Amino acid sequence: MTDPRVVPVQIQGQRYPIRTTLDAEYVARLAAFVDEKMRAAAESTTTGDSLRLAVLAALNIADELFRANDATDTRDGRLAERTEELERLLDSVLMR
Q1: What is the pTM of this model?
Q2: Residue 55: which domain range?
Q3: C-alpha span between 7 and 84 (Å, rounded)
């Protein structure tokens, strides 16, 4: 396991030292994503409160995650159904 190191990131003009074993470039991409979500939240509300913006950004990110998980579950369900159907067809051909 890699030793943790500090990766400095900036979100909404604030610098945050992130202690992590993850790749620094990946952490920078995560921070840029969060920063963009906070900017979008700032554009959609009149509040300048950074905590409120962070909560709105977190809700938006959670919504994206839930929707992606739902889409994956739906896709996996369809794939399982197709697999079962193919299995039944194969069984019927082999039983002849």
Answers
A1: 0.72
A2: 5-94
A3: 47
Which residue has 């959609």 as its token pair?
44
CA 52/CA 1 separation, integer angstroms: 36
Domain count, the chain: 1
Q: Looking at residues 40-49, what average pLDDT do you find? A: 85
Q: Measured between alpha carbons, how far is 74 from 81 in angstroms, rounded to an integer?
A: 11
pLDDT band per the 50, 70, 90 thresholds, residue 47: confident
Q: Please give the span between the terminal C-alpha atoms of the chain, in angstroms, as a whole number.
A: 55
pLDDT per residue over 1-15, tens digit each? 678 999 999 999 999
Residue 30 CA to chain centroid, in angstroms? 10
